[in-house]
Give the backbone structure.
Amino acid sequence: GDTLNAPKQAAPHTRPDLEDELGYALALGYRFTPALGLEVNYGRTESDADVLPSVTVRNSRLSLDGYYAFNTESAFSPYVLLGVGQTRIKTALTAGVEDTLAEAGIGAFYRFNQNVALRAELRNVHNIDETLNDQLALVGLEFSPGGAAAKADEPAQQPEQAQEEAPV
């Protein structure tokens, strides 16, 4: 065989294939205005490795995400999201590899009231170190403690009353 003219094979990727796996995420955030918020997001996925099915691969992701929501006076409020973070991929055979992430997404809140909302999101996660992209579909509930209470605790503004000074 002529090995000099054989087509070059692509180098095998260094990260296991975790396609179509279920996982979970938890976010804790602060809403600066009804439209602008910042949150810390932790997500985790576990699956079997594509090369060694008996080896479990754990992918943990931690990010800082900012979002801007539109139509905030309505029950349905779409938003855009940008974030940066770190991922750690670990198996029983490896100590773990950490990579830097950049994230962008779109989603929507459906608010049942000021404290509870259904949240759906599509997010692209770009692994900067490995030049890989993953897409996430997220569905969850958002709890905003103090949403209605914060407005109830504010004292009602009293209209200013004109006062006349009595001549002395």
